[in-house]
């Protein structure tokens, strides 16, 4: 069809509606319906059929089926670990390790935990926060400082080491945009994920040198050693003979998850890591880890097979909204390609907007979207189908554009008071949520400004 400004409307509707209502699912559905209206107007029956057909074909696509089952598998895995009691035992055991005797070591330990446990951001935050909190209280470090370090490190590192749900989610979105060698391009984009890189390095600097700015100064000044720490897992299992075995179940399942992804990439890529099937590799790794967690929980805990099945179903149910978001975003991405959105944007921007401004604009727009809806997943789903076609139409490398969209989503989500990771960081650290938001925001803005300048410089070099 003829290129027109109307091709922007489905994506713009999704962005604006998501910002206003914070309902990503409804925003994506609205975008899909509007795209079909533009494609088939003025035939109502064709519009209805096109809407149903585009979503149904996306759902039953064989390649996408792996993604749906992978997504539900990650929810099932953590359902077994958490509901089965082994994860609670793991956290309890880590909490009771009080061998850190200086403030710098305590802060660095929190940062290091966030780096090495990169499986899932919320799990990483819970492990780092609940492990470090008693030590921070004992040494007189503010819990607000703890919340900042765990939030800045855990969320950012999960996108820099994408052998996790975030990696598979974004890899799927990228591959559905017709990118050649999507895994290789995704790996290349990590080097341009400036906000995540700056956030992790800034958190390390704060951990090592105790740099306090803004409201953080007052909280650090008022922190008193030997505060009473409430155990967030107080309703968890007692320390029994199975205590160490439960911890071993968690470690074995998580380690297998980390190890099996690159192993399967090598197998599916005939010995070449970057040529492996990323979605299939993560799918297999997830279900191996789920099998280990299920069998280990049965052997070490007082649970039955019926209990394990219940934990699997509840965990999968809890993550179902993510699978639906991914499904609808893939459908919308296909429709925007049919409308020629990327080609139209390229024709408008070519000559009217300097190329060096494109990356900063994508980063800022993605950041605003992420901040407003409080969801990095939703932001990725909306922004990647816009950024990638724009780069490909202009004949530019897609990796920096992918990174700008993802990086902006992380920044917006990181700074947003309605973000799930921000809320969980407050809970894990035991602080008032608004205090965490206030103390973290100055550091996030510093990393955000740095990322904006870095994208401008990258654009000048393209």
UniProtKB/TrEMBL annotation:
<feature type="transmembrane region" description="Helical">
    <location>
        <begin position="62"/>
        <end position="81"/>
    </location>
</feature>
<dbReference type="Pfam" id="PF03553">
    <property type="entry name" value="Na_H_antiporter"/>
</dbReference>
<dbReference type="InterPro" id="IPR018461">
    <property type="entry name" value="Na/H_Antiport_NhaC-like_C"/>
</dbReference>
<feature type="transmembrane region" description="Helical">
    <location>
        <begin position="280"/>
        <end position="299"/>
    </location>
</feature>
<keyword id="KW-0812">Transmembrane</keyword>
<protein>
    <submittedName>
        <fullName>Sodium:proton antiporter</fullName>
    </submittedName>
</protein>
<keyword id="KW-0472">Membrane</keyword>
<keyword id="KW-1133">Transmembrane helix</keyword>
<feature type="transmembrane region" description="Helical">
    <location>
        <begin position="12"/>
        <end position="41"/>
    </location>
</feature>
<feature type="transmembrane region" description="Helical">
    <location>
        <begin position="355"/>
        <end position="374"/>
    </location>
</feature>
<feature type="transmembrane region" description="Helical">
    <location>
        <begin position="311"/>
        <end position="335"/>
    </location>
</feature>
<feature type="domain" description="Na+/H+ antiporter NhaC-like C-terminal">
    <location>
        <begin position="184"/>
        <end position="459"/>
    </location>
</feature>
<feature type="transmembrane region" description="Helical">
    <location>
        <begin position="441"/>
        <end position="461"/>
    </location>
</feature>
<keyword id="KW-1003">Cell membrane</keyword>
<feature type="transmembrane region" description="Helical">
    <location>
        <begin position="248"/>
        <end position="268"/>
    </location>
</feature>
<feature type="transmembrane region" description="Helical">
    <location>
        <begin position="186"/>
        <end position="209"/>
    </location>
</feature>
<feature type="transmembrane region" description="Helical">
    <location>
        <begin position="386"/>
        <end position="411"/>
    </location>
</feature>
<dbReference type="GO" id="GO:0005886">
    <property type="term" value="C:plasma membrane"/>
</dbReference>
<feature type="transmembrane region" description="Helical">
    <location>
        <begin position="108"/>
        <end position="125"/>
    </location>
</feature>
